Amino acid sequence: MNELRETFVEELKDIYDAEKQLVKALPKIARATEHEELKAAFESHLEETEEHVRRLEEVFKAMDEPVKGKKCKAMQGLIEEGADLIDEEEGDAALICAAQKVEHYEIASYGSLEAWARLLGEEEAAGLLEQTLDEEKAADEKLTEIAETAINVEESQEEAEEEHAGHHRGSR
Fold it and tell me: Of the residues 3, 132, 135, 150, which has the fewest C-beta atoms closer than 10 A?
């Protein structure tokens, strides 16, 4: 159990840093978004992410551990990938994909942390982690919903309009 606790604390430090990186990255992602519903989803998730940081600080305290992060290289890479998409103007569909990669990383992390907290008998920590896990899953579902409806419909219409304009130019 001592080894599990050490692993738990290391992963806690990792996700704490990951969430703090996201707090810095989400405003840039929201600004790069064209679709209003998606922009609102990113802005809303920024508020949630700030709450996740606070909740993680409560978990550290509940576990009687110092509040500190450890550089999360995975999140750093995911954020860099998203920044590249913004720089290359890949569009909202690509940003949704990048954001969902982030959500899935967080879901995996929080799922393990919650399970380990329960195994360690740390029910307060487990409850806090479960709350965040549920919010990450909901954010992922919201992104899927936006991707399946509004974004793809708009991009399909734009492609059809471009194709239609190309046919008219070619027939003159």
Answer: 3
State the Cα–Cα distance between residues 145 and 138, nearest whole angstrom: 10
The token pair that represents 160 in the structure block: 């059809």
Cα Rg of the chain (Å, integer): 20
Residue 145 C-alpha from the chain's centroid: 15
- Give the pLDDT of residue 156: 59
Secondary structure class of 172 (helix, strand, coil)? coil
Span 153-167, average pLDDT = 61
Measure the CA–CA gap between 99 and 101, rounded to whole angstroms: 5
Q: Which runs of consecutive H residues, i.e. helices, occur in 35-151?
A: 36-62, 73-87, 92-119, 123-146
Q: What are the φ/ψ torsions at residue 17 (nearest 5 degrees)?
A: -65, -40
